Each structure stands twice: as C-alpha cells, then as structure tokens.
C-alpha cells in the first residue's frame, strides 16, 4: 500500500506443496465417486484462475451418502467403544497438524484469505477442535448431560465459505465424538479443503461411511437438510437460508442448530487504552476480509474520544497490506467471490447515498481477482442499512454514544445477537455491560478470540443452539438441550 512508509519485500508461500487434481468426485462410503449432477468449477478469488472441477451431488447422490452414513452408524460407529472413537479423532487431529501447511495453502488458494490467517488460525483451530472432542469421546457420562447420553444417528451438515476447514471441524468433531455419523456439504466456492479432509479420513482408517462429503450448491444442501433419514441438521450460513431450513425441518423429528449472521457492536469507552482498542477494532472487522459472522462491524465510540480514536484507526489502517493471499506479509486478502464483492459494493454505495461518510486508505489493488479496500464509514445513524445489515466484508460502520445506557441500547438495537466487544479499563463496567448485551459471545478488551472449549452461538436472528464446549456436545445427543 503506497501510504505505508515501510515496504516489505514479497514473501510468498510456495503453492507447490499442494497437489490439486484436475477434477474431484464426492466422498461416499470411504470412496471418491462421480456425482450425477453437472460439475462446477472452483476459482482462486485472488486471480480468478480456475483451480479444478468438482462434482455436484444430486438428491440421488445424497441418498447414497445418507444410506452409507446410516449403515456406518448402525454397524460400526454407534456400537464402537467410545474410547476407540476417541482414538480415531486423535488420529485425525494429528494428521491435520502433520499436513497443516498443505491445508493452509489450499485454503488460501480456494478462499482468498491471507496465509498468515489460514496458517495461524484456521488450521490450528481445526486441529484443536478434533483434539478437544477426541478427549470428550469416552467421557460423555461426565459431561453433565445426563447418564449414558446417546447419539442421535446421522447428522446432515451444511457449511459456508468463510472458514471452510474450521467450520467443517466445528461440525464433524462434535458429531463424531458423540457417536453420530455425518453427511457434510461444503460451500460451492470453497470445497477443496473438505475434499482434502476426506483424504485424511482415509489416511486415519476411519471406517467407511462415518464421514461423507457431498459437494454442490444450494440444491445439494437442500437435499441433505430435507433427507428423511437424517436425524440432526446443523447449518452455518445466511439468515435467509437458515429460515428456510427452519421451515423445512419444523414438524419433523430432526434436531436443529442454526449459526447465522451477525452485526456485532464493538463498544469503546472513553477510558479504554486507545492503541489496544484500535488493534481490536482492526482485528474485529478486517480479520478474514470481514467475512466473519461475529465481525465487529458496528463500532460504538464514546463521543468524547471519537475524533482521536478515528484518527488513530485511520493511521493504523493505512499500514495494512492488501494483496496476494499467499504472501506471508499480507493482512487483507481477496473477497471470496464476485457475488460477495457485488454485495459489499452495493451496501457501501447505499451507505454513501444515505448520508454516511466513506473513508478508504490510498490502496493499490491487484488488477485481476476480487478486491475491496478496508473501509470506514463515519456519521452513521442507526437507521442506515450499513448499520443494520450484515455487509460480510471489510466495512466498518461507526456510531457514537454518550452514556453506558445509550451504548447498551444501541448495541442491542439489531435483529442479530451473535457477539459483542467492550473496551474499558474498568472491570466492573465490563461485567455490568456484558450482562446487558443480548449476544452469545461478549469479548472484553479483545475480539475474535476462538477456543474449542468455549460455546459459540447466537440470540435472535443469529440462530440457536451452541457449538463448542460442553454445550456443543448436547446438540448431538438425545434428550440433552443445547440452549
Ligand atoms: P448461504 O446461506 O447461501 O450459503 C451457506 C451454505 O448453505 C452453502 O453451503 C450453500 O450452498 C448452502 N445453501 C444455500 N441454499 C441452501 C438451501 N436452501 N438449503 C440448504 N443449504 C443451502 O450463504 P452465502 O450465499 O454463501 O452468503 C450470503 C450471506 O450469508 C453473506 O453475505 C453473509 O451475510 C451470510 N453468511 C454468514 C455466515 C456465517 O458464518 N454466519 C457465513 C457465510 C455467509
Ligand atoms: Mg474457490
């Protein structure tokens, strides 16, 4: 970025560690098989280069996958000693670590996220989720979820493109640890790490049918969710699709968890350490290009420090490096798809049209690929679309408040309720405000911190059920309530 006085020499990670085949099938019953639908292409969003062609699973393919999962559940995985299930999960976790660099490069190629994040966040956290749940496999009696908790059966799982491998881990690890088998559908723009995970399942000698991966778009997802022999549905993605899934599942015996959108408030009080808060704001909204359901997309600043904070924030944003996701110096990578880029542009244009003030650093963007500079809107009012709707991109909306009560009222003035942040030096204020916020996760003097031991999930239109921690186990067990 030209405003940056320190220019870094490029430090590209080599892509030669990954071996992308010209085409991929579905992973059903331990084998790669052709899908019956029209294959689709997945691209590298940083270059628009086609990476490979992937099978589309039809309803008939999903049916085969569910049948394989049912057989594996009834004959092998369900009856297996819990400690043995744990051994498989430990093995998967170790294999993810051994092949971490390969997963990180592949994730950055298919998704556009910086290698620094896929290497240091996505892949280690995915392995951590398998390690954590491996430990639970033979201790479910002691999870406080009742005596002898029982698996549900076959789980149908649909995940988005923002954290492809990590969302897979959030879904697959707890399902397997609790004795369920799975049919998982990755997002259509980012199927490749799930297919590499299928290879890990084979390497780990996981019994065929325990994990099945069916690629495709929304129709394939619908076939998974609506399949009559699925006992549990777990979905992460947009609120709109989440609502349609809730309707489809209503009245069936299926258990459902929904992890949907968010519009988190990141609240900065006048006694907060400004430099730390600035780092937290940057981390909150520009991590993963802002493609984060719990992103701190609404900055609420106490009025008395507004100008000072915004000036610091702009200085800091001026040092962010936008560009090649495989460069180890890159802070902000590519927007995941042309469609998502169009949505970010549209909402940002609305922001300006509705009277907010757009600021972007001077920033040279690559010519090919999908890019959007880090963006800050000031003078945003709560009624503006950019204050209400999830942009799911590197766009921050700044609002102000005068009193703690006003901060809480504005923070809760949203149809969502996934996460929130509080920046203040006062511990008592953190506890008081956190109790008043209607959000599943509240971070204090930090943001976007994830850990497999900590439950994650939403209020209101952000969804229901929890993933992670002891609460997350309940979502995959009979009788246990995850809420
Ligand atoms: P989406 O909800 O359309 O897609 C998520 C997953 O659901 C994908 O695998 C998709 O193929 C599948 N799907 C689509 N229609 C389906 C249906 N009817 N039944 C079953 N599965 C279906 O999300 P998107 O189009 O990728 O993104 C749109 C918006 O969603 C974003 O702008 C953002 O606001 C939000 N989003 C939220 C999250 C999150 O983590 N909460 C993640 C991605 C996107
Ligand atoms: Mg892709």
TrEMBL record:
InterPro entries assigned to the protein according to its UniProt record, in alphabetical order: Ald_DH/histidinol_DH (IPR016161), Ald_DH_C (IPR016163), Ald_DH_CS_GLU (IPR029510), Ald_DH_N (IPR016162), Aldehyde_DH_dom (IPR015590)
Source species, domain of life: Bacteria
Signal peptide: none
Catalytic center residues: 259
Keywords: Oxidoreductase
Aldehyde dehydrogenase domain mapped to chain residues: 32-478
Keyword Oxidoreductase: yes
Pfam families from the UniProt entry: Aldedh
Family affiliation: Belongs to the aldehyde dehydrogenase family.
Protein name: Aldehyde dehydrogenase family protein
């Amino acid at each position: 970025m030209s405003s940056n006085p320190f220019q870094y020499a490029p430090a590209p990670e080599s892509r030669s560690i990954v071996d992308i085949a010209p085409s991929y099938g579905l992973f059903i019953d331990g084998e790669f098989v052709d899908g019956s639908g029209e294959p689709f292409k997945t691209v590298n969003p940083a270059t628009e280069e086609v990476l490979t062609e992937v099978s589309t699973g039809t309803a008939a393919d999903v049916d085969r996958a569910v049948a394989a999962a049912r057989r594996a559940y009834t004959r092998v995985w369900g009856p297996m000693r819990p400690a043995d299930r744990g051994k498989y999960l430990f093995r998967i976790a170790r294999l993810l670590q051994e092949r971490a660099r390969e997963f990180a490069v592949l994730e950055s190629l298919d998704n556009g996220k910086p290698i620094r994040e896929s290497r240091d966040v996505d892949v280690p956290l995915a392995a951590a989720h398998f390690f954590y749940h491996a430990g639970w496999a033979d201790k479910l009696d002691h999870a406080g979820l009742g005596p002898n908790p029982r698996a549900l059966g076959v789980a149908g799982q649909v995940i988005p493109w923002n954290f492809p491998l990590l969302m897979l881990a959030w879904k697959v690890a707890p399902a397997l640890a609790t004795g369920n088998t799975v049919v998982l559908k990755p997002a259509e723009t980012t199927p490749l790490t799930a297919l590499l995970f299928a290879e890990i399942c084979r390497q780990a000698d996981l019994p065929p049918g325990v994990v099945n991966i069916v690629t495709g778009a929304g129709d394939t997802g619908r076939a998974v969710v609506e399949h009559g022999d699925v006992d549990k549905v777990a979905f992460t993605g947009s609120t709109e699709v989440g609502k349609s899934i809730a309707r489809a599942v209503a009245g069936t015996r299926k258990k459902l968890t929904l992890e949907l959108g968010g519009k988190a408030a990141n609240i900065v009080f006048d006694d907060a350490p400004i430099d730390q808060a600035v780092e937290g704001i940057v981390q909150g909204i520009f991590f993963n290009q802002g493609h984060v359901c719990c992103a701190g997309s609404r900055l609420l600043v106490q009025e008395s420090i507004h100008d000072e904070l915004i000036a610091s924030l702009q200085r800091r944003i001026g040092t962010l490096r936008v560009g090649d996701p495989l460069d180890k110096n890159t802070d902000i990578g590519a927007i995941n798809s042309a469609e998502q880029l169009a949505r970010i542009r549209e909402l940002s244009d609305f922001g300006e049209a509705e009277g907010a003030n757009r600021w972007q650093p001077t920033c040279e963007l690559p010519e090919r690929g999908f890019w959007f500079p880090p963006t800050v809107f000031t003078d945003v009012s709560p009624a503006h679309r950019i204050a209400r709707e999830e942009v799911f991109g590197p766009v921050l909306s700044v609002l102000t408040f005068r009193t703690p009560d006003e901060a809480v009222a504005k923070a809760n003035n949203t149809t969502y309720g996934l996460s929130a942040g509080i920046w203040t030096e006062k511990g008592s204020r953190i506890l008081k405000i956190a109790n008043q916020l209607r959000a599943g996760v509240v971070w204090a003097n930090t943001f976007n911190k994830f850990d497999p031991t900590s439950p994650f999930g939403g209020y209101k239109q952000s969804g229901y059920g929890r993933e992670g921690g002891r609460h997350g186990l309940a979502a995959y067990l009979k009788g246990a309530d995850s809420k």
